[in-house]
UniProtKB/TrEMBL annotation:
<dbReference type="InterPro" id="IPR018356">
    <property type="entry name" value="Tscrpt_reg_HTH_DeoR_CS"/>
</dbReference>
<keyword id="KW-0804">Transcription</keyword>
<protein>
    <submittedName>
        <fullName>Transcriptional regulator</fullName>
    </submittedName>
</protein>
<keyword id="KW-0805">Transcription regulation</keyword>
<feature type="domain" description="HTH deoR-type">
    <location>
        <begin position="9"/>
        <end position="64"/>
    </location>
</feature>
<dbReference type="Pfam" id="PF13280">
    <property type="entry name" value="WYL"/>
</dbReference>
<dbReference type="GO" id="GO:0003677">
    <property type="term" value="F:DNA binding"/>
</dbReference>
<dbReference type="InterPro" id="IPR028349">
    <property type="entry name" value="PafC-like"/>
</dbReference>
<keyword id="KW-0238">DNA-binding</keyword>
<dbReference type="InterPro" id="IPR036390">
    <property type="entry name" value="WH_DNA-bd_sf"/>
</dbReference>
<dbReference type="InterPro" id="IPR057727">
    <property type="entry name" value="WCX_dom"/>
</dbReference>
<dbReference type="InterPro" id="IPR036388">
    <property type="entry name" value="WH-like_DNA-bd_sf"/>
</dbReference>
<dbReference type="GO" id="GO:0003700">
    <property type="term" value="F:DNA-binding transcription factor activity"/>
</dbReference>
<dbReference type="Pfam" id="PF08279">
    <property type="entry name" value="HTH_11"/>
</dbReference>
<dbReference type="InterPro" id="IPR013196">
    <property type="entry name" value="HTH_11"/>
</dbReference>
<dbReference type="InterPro" id="IPR001034">
    <property type="entry name" value="DeoR_HTH"/>
</dbReference>
<dbReference type="InterPro" id="IPR026881">
    <property type="entry name" value="WYL_dom"/>
</dbReference>
Amino acid sequence: MPIASSATTSSRLLSLLSLLQVRRDWPGVLLADRLGVSERTVRRDVDRLRELGYPVQAVKGPDGGYRLEAGSQMPPLLFDDEQTVALAVALRIAVGTGAGIEEAAARALATVRQVLPSRLRQRVDALEISAAGHGTEPQIDTGLLLTLSAAVRAREELRFDYRSPGRHEDAELHRPRRVQPYHLVVRAGRWYVVGWDPDRDDWRTYRADRMTPRVPTGPRFVPREVPGGDVAAFLSARFKGSESADVWPCRGEVVLDLPAAKVAPFAGDGVVEALDTTRTRLTTGAWSWAALAAALARFDTEIEVIGPPELRAAFAELSDRAGRAARSE
């Protein structure tokens, strides 16, 4: 019987490890069929993986089989080409999360890059990713994120102190807040806890960097669904000042004396429609009528208000305020 070369054995071990990583349980006969070897060879290869530090457990049952468990140590990992590139991308954009892991992510990326084959190293080095707009955002302690995430996962009520902007409260006298945390999310470089406030009987959103959890946590709670069932849409709606749908509470329609090409880059989530080469219809919204009028005034051009009347009234009030400001000394 011919003896397999060491290169063939190593390649087969890598294939076996790759299979074990993508599926929880593998019957031995199925592994043998996928690898094109006998079940006896699979058993020997599993023993070799165990010697290398991979905790491969035997699975009992009619078919028998194997399972890759979590171990006490971190053995070498195996990634295919696309997984490797995805890992590099994730590490490079980690700086934009505000999670305080920038240095660790940079070291991890350097470690991954060092062992990459040249074809993948060139792809990874070609990635030019910059996190824009988050340089002044507050960095959050990784330990705090883990504490908050653990409470979300365990469905345990959080007791915490909260630092509100411009308020200086004595922590010894201030009663801690309570929230039933459902989601820990990041938006524009800031982390938020979305949860149910049992004292206010309503949903609330808290800046995670302003929270100081108290020990111990509160009792477990029965889960309920975030309004609408989509936490991203819910959070977006709250930032727009809406209590329900992910829409601006104040929406208006105007015609601007500008070509659509000059309006579109600054229209945000508004709807832009070119009326001709010099005029554009814009339908957009804001959290208040005054804010919407001020935002539209930034286009620095003639504005025709189509509706509603509230927007026209807001422009009148804005004009009066501007006039008073111009006359002030």
